[in-house]
């Protein structure tokens, strides 16, 4: 994969990061804790069981977001880790789907929201996807993640038919990256 230039916008910078770096691991933990707790609170009235949380965080290594078939980007705000997004080639039965990539782990820490970081990360993810040869980017999300769905729509993503069997996915989006 060609080297990606670091992007800077106001106080934000985005650059590739190893999926297993301390900063990436801390943001994965924050991301998973938030989306899991949000689901459990909405559907079952309590936060995620701590043992389940630890199992699932440990199981999600992020290795699929490593070159040559993926990339994890880490956003910093004034130098502090503030968010991540991953892009990987979409695979079906062990084979990549021609020209299609998938957006994963889009996350900005709660205290950093409202500062434009989501848009900065999404634009950097699209650039990274092009670097992987991706012409179409897809993603899945849930009903309760209304802020994310609104952001994707603002950036030209449109709802599509289901493309995966993710247990918690309720909405699927796509955007063409060519043209």
Automatic annotation (TrEMBL):
InterPro entries: Acyl_CoA_acyltransferase, Bact_Acetyltransf, GNAT_dom. CDD domains: NAT_SF. Keywords: Acyltransferase, Transferase. GO terms for molecular function: acyltransferase activity, transferring groups other than amino-acyl groups. This is N-acetyltransferase. Gene3D superfamilies: 3.40.630.30. Signal peptide: none annotated. Residues 26-178 form the N-acetyltransferase domain.
